[in-house]
Fold each of these.
Amino acid sequence: MAVKRVKMYLDGQWVEADSGKTFEVKDPATGEVVGIVPDGGASETRKAIEVAYRAFKGWAGMTPKARGELLRKVDSLMRERVDALARLVTLENGKPFEEAKKEVTFAVGYFDWFAEEARRTYGELVPSPFAGKRLWVIRQPIGVVGAITPWNFPATMVTRKIAPALAAGCTVVLKPASATPLTALAIAEIIHQVGFPAGVFNVVTGARSRPIGDELLQNPFVKKIAFTGSTDVGKQLMEGAAKQLKHVSFELGGNAPFIVFDDADFDEAVEGAVAIKFLRVAGQSCICANRLYVQETIAERFTEAFVEKVKAIKVGPGVEPGMQVGPLINEETLKKVSDLVEDAVSHGAKVAVGGKRLTEGWYAKGFFYAPTVLLNVTAEMRVCREEIFGPVAPILRFRTEEELIQRANETIFGLASYLYSRNLGRIMRVAEALEYGLVGVNDAAGYTHEIPFGGYKESGLGREGGRQGIEEYMEVKSIVVNLPK
């Protein structure tokens, strides 16, 4: 397989790092090098910010309709290249090709949605209490945005940030994850071919996040930081952003409860639990089910059915047909997952299936971990308190609705949650009581473009998607006019 050599994208040009250094992008399924990318840092980031700042006035001055038309062209060209983009996602991220296609298709939708929302950043004419005054409220783009995206959704996490920012009239400097920069650069190539003005969108790649992140935080031209990643890193970014009171929007860690009441549609609940736990980038997603709560009257039956489904999951390299779960992203992630399982077992948990690294055959060179189900789990175990970020499902039992709500909310996180029930009153009570930004009711598909997505508590700030998504990139200005006498 040919190694893909790419350059970073600054001011409408494809450039190398100032130092000439590069770093390798490796397939987590095989360890093979699939890409060689410029190893940029503070100086390249500074240049990107400066060109984005220069481009801002012209881009913000375009009509929302004109910006929307360019976004629609990106949408159209990305749709033509879904398969090619999906292959990149699989190569650098490891997720199965069919799953990667679903991700890219969903990612494209943000350009379509925000192309329309660009024209709907409405202001207000507020009735004045004074006859000689008029009161206007308008929205204007914030300015240069520093976007930092993770590796688990190399396409979606990029488009979910840059589409609303560009639609609002902001210019962007993107820092994609060092593990998965190829997809971001392929999206940049599409934006370039569509004909966006130079400097409006820029991509800086680097093996180390710190120099790039520090420049985004310290440079006064940057007015907002948009980040998806861990809560710990989010707190560090927020601390740095506070020195200049930069705007921030963060989607951070999760500890999603998946709740099954005894009146649920049993088969749908089992299928949903498998899907949201294992079939989203091998459990490496902030909205994946982290704790499975099953009402004790159906716990035995549910566990048996769930374990049988998990045993049937096909694990392997994402390029192989029919695979459902690929590798973890790196050795560090694999070690954390393994440590969480070992800790749970040492405190009394029982492994019903899985519970080990896969090392034979095609697993030998990759970071594969067997889909795992843990029983006899207690809330005190690390596997219930920390975000697993891997294919491990702890099952806990509960008796009453009131008990369940208390236990489900006993976490510092509040990103996503899921509940299965056919009792409408119960659905309303529990959905309203859960302290999470997303509640899936008899649904494990997650969010859509049309609704806002974000977290409670330490799972984040702000919202992405929906009409609220573009508002995160705009300032509100009030204008008071004294009419001439």
Note: The radius of gyration is 23 Å.
Amino acid sequence: MTSKFYLALLALLLMLPLSAQKLSRTEKKIISTIEKNNEEAIDFLEKVVNINSGTLNLDGVKEVGMVFKDAFNDIGFETKWIEMPEEMNRSGHLFAETSGTKGKKLLLIGHLDTVFEEDSPFQKFTMVNDSIAHAPGGNDMKGGNVIVLYALRALQEQGLLNDAQIIVAYTGDEESTGKPLSVSRKDLIDAAKRSDIALGFETSTGFNYATVARRGSSGWAVEVEGKRAHSSGIFNESNGAGAIFEMSRILHEFYTDVKGEELLTFNPGVLLGGTFVNFDEITSKGDAYGKTNVVAQKAMVKGGLRFISEEQKERARAKMREIVANNLPQTSASITFTDSYPAMQPTEGNLALLKTLNEVSLDLKQGEVLAYDPGKRGAADVSFIAEYVDGLDGLGTMGSNAHTPQETVNLNTIEALTKRTAILIYRLINTK
């Protein structure tokens, strides 16, 4: 973790009061129930992993959603499937809710889709040894969804959800968010506005860490026009520098003049230049044509920007616009930006939640929980609601190689993580 960020978090954390406590008799009953149900939870995970739910497999995403829908119905939640408009080419979202007025109002966030589409060779749950399974989407994040379900089931079996308001939101398009965001994330934001606390169950980074901050993400694209001419005349007053030299200047100045702020990164992901350039936005593939004796007429680049605050994002964008406007002779350039995920900042409310989670973990003898470095995490659904509600993320399963055909989930950790989740929820819904 970067030193400045760590020290700022530590200073805030030390200002918060600590109130350690032992497990109550009720909490010990919750733990016993989770132990009793753990084998069933792992079987449930295998079942939903074996249903392909790549983001663009709309029927598969819904099928997984219906399996979870039935399970939440069985523990007394009111459930609904929210369809997305057909033109968005995205499946819907599953919401499950229990209504009440007791304690903190909770929003628990997961997602049903995975990065593995129907044509992926990686489709089935297979055991590697007695504790590790290869599982497409098992770690990111069907395992987290199962932890939520079985934590709530343990509380329900002990009669502890009466008069609690808990909303479970499982989106169907987290891995490739449907556009416009005003439609695809409307229901999640509405739920946050009715809640006090949000808990996200994306992949865990270990028992000793939780996520109090995530960087936002934004897209950017630069297009450059040069004067097409014979290369023997490049650099003269009439022909100028050409599109590729101008694009090279822009990217070099991005690197030297925009780079440097803590937790700010930007990456040019695809670059094309020549006499003619073609790029397909849907497939993110393109081609270019040019000759060594012709001054390049076109160049384009597409990239991503990561930031920890809206202010940081706007500072970076302003510098990038300034650089793009300072063109080499006989060239012109433009830059555009597209918003995707906002930033989740490390607020005092998030740190207070971390402290509560830390107390739960210590009481369960699972070790101290610290804030994870946001520079090492990608964006997630919790970011969309961070401005409305205090939150934590990274409370899901443990595993390795997410988003790859080597993705694994550590089955031996599910019981302990479910216990942690259940006790955290129990304490929050009993806190005014």
Note: Residues 25-49 form the longest helix (25 residues).
Amino acid sequence: MTTTWDVIVVGAGTAGMPTATFAALRGARVLLIEQAERVGGTLWYSGGQMSAADTRLQRSRGIEDSAAEHFRDIMRITRQTSEPVLLELFTDHAGAAFDWLMDNGFDVAAECPACLDVHEPYRTRRSVWGNEGGLSVMKALKRALDREIARGAVTLKLSSELTGFLRAPNGAVIGVQVRDRRTGVSAEHRGENVVLTTGGYVANRELYERYSPGTPYGVASNPEAKGTGFALAAALGARVKGGEMALPSYGCVLEDPKDRSSQRFIGGPHDALSAYIWLETSPQRRRPWEIHVNLRGERFVREDIPSVDHRECALRDQPDWRFFILFDEGIRQNAPKITTRWSEAALKGAFGTHPSFLVDDSLNGLARQMGVDEAALSRTVAEYNAAVASGLDAKFGREFLPRAIAKPPFYAVQCFGLQVMSPAGLDVDADLRVLDQAGKPIGSLYAAGEVLGHWRIAGDAYAPGTSVTPAITFGKMLGERLLSWSNARAAAE
């Protein structure tokens, strides 16, 4: 006997959980399918940064904000490259979505809302996060979902991988094919609505290189982000956009420099592939004593520029999205630690033992370890030392020039620019219906979350809170008002 569901949601992550929850609250019979053995998706790996305007939390702190200002601020940060229709949809409804998350026990950090400078900051205090990062978000979403599972409105199937779609003669999607990853048994499920919230594809090198050709492959992501739903929808004829928007994050050290697929912090749980650690490159929190050089042995950026976006765009123009943070013994002894994740002893011990932490008694010897031209590196250091002596960095305009790089031994930390989100995504309309190559909706197929691509909201930049919050917001909207089925209840106002 085949059960026909009102709503089938594929992917029990940041967008899928609220989609299923709100559809169930409107009376839907919901099937929620997840390929992993647990719900939560990328939230297990995410810092969980969010942004929303005109929230109760802001008002309680005396912060005046509006959806219109949030829209303008994101457009400023992304240099007008965000997709305006979806951006407006997000900013108009993000405040209500965040308030709902708070109603479900979201454990917000005491310092929030704030102007977070991990990425280009907003002009208003609207960035928020939980005390447990992404887990704080996941627990609040799961709390709401579990109520609907407990009363039988949502059926959750874990370890179930999407393998295909069922289609009507008119091309509409009328169900899904799934395979149980534990038993290998396949099944078909029919539904009036199918919602793809399957996440991104950055852990799938083949897909990444297909949609962002010529871009260095390097990711820090959920290892389950293989793009299964994304690829199946593309094969179905869905239009894909945004692959050219690939932008590296800045200042990541890899445990294994040969493995550019990193899914956990160095020193973190060993439940994924190779590890990574972010160095502190934000001058607002730690002014740089070091210089940054590329594979040509040359400086390529003003190291103390406040703009994160400027550094990320500068790195995008460098070979292999790779650079070195260079300094000497005098700086090592006097500068603040470049990462808070390691002790002073652990950091010092990494040099000469860790493949990304290099040390040598001479600049020429260090250049050979780095694989850069010795003369070019010596010239770069000499030019910088002259700038320190004169107090004027004519080449880049750096203002903080604390001391020359002259005292051996000399040190270099090899860093990479990594993708943390999938650049490309499925194209959708303002009702989040998936569009085909001609720009027409594929019947009964919807999408939300990272499967839409990072660029739709964040454009050609990293705007704070534009991955987690849009996923929650669009999931809530789908379940609450955008999906329709027989005998659906109207959303409570």
Note: DSSP finds 14 helices and 20 strands in the chain.
Amino acid sequence: MSVPRHHTVQVPATTANLGPGFDAFGLAIDLYLTVRTVPPDGQSERVRTVGGVGCGSLATDDSNLVWRAFVAFCEYHDVEVPDVAMVAHCEVPLERGLGSSSAAIVAGLSLARALTGVRIGDRELVTQASVLEGHPDNVAPALLGGLVACAVDDDGNVIVRRVNPAPHLRPVALVPTASMATTAARAVLPDMLPRAAVAEQAARAGHVLAALSGTWPMAVEVAGDRLHEPSRLAVMGPSAEVVTALRTAGVHAWLSGAGPSVLAAVPAVGGRSDASDGLIADIARTHDFVLHARRFDLAGALVCPDDGCGLAGNGGCVQCPRGRLS
């Protein structure tokens, strides 16, 4: 086996659904999972963690999701699994609706593509990630960055369209201390919706997608949906209170993915969130949520070889993800 050219990947957190875009809309935000391949010599763990809020409970053996996705890519493309270990730093809170699983899957697939030299494009990688994760709305923005809309065509192919979010908006995440597994959040979803609710859902989705892309102003009155939020918020009391408080205050907010985190999109002045940050911070403190005022990630998964740079093509880039692992 040849000695692999080691790489580092940086993958953003994501927020999915965005209110009425159930399993269809997603956004990337600048909290990151960073993973580097290293020689296996002298490292007892398959994936060694080096800090970060999301690393404490990550598996370090072959069951680690980054490693499983790495191996799955190699098996799917019938190539030998490179003889490597990994080092990871995770800023993405686990089981909070911020795409930690999708980030892990995209990290593993991206590293496998880089190390094996298998020549496939991002569209095929999104499709493979969707098979592993179950849905494209988190994996697509994790790979591509920005704002995405996903659908499946009549032949079963995943169709993804990506745009930059409106430049005058900034994301604010309100994250509770308690986690909730996605499987539990999916168990409370209704099996059917009345026809009127389906029509309203589609109308709201169009308004929200266009507002987040900057086509027209936000309309907080149609930020919520009729499919997943009512049933989920009914069993997530603190999250429901946060969503209600934000929307009552005129803030465009939604339950992030399957929850329990809440995301808001707020106007920005000079690159930072405007004065509504004070109001949002008060709501977060009142309900014991941690506030993260962030930016949208536009780059998606960034993969850099040890002897080069995924952006500049050489070493010394100020955005090099390897700095997160030092």
Note: The radius of gyration is 20 Å.
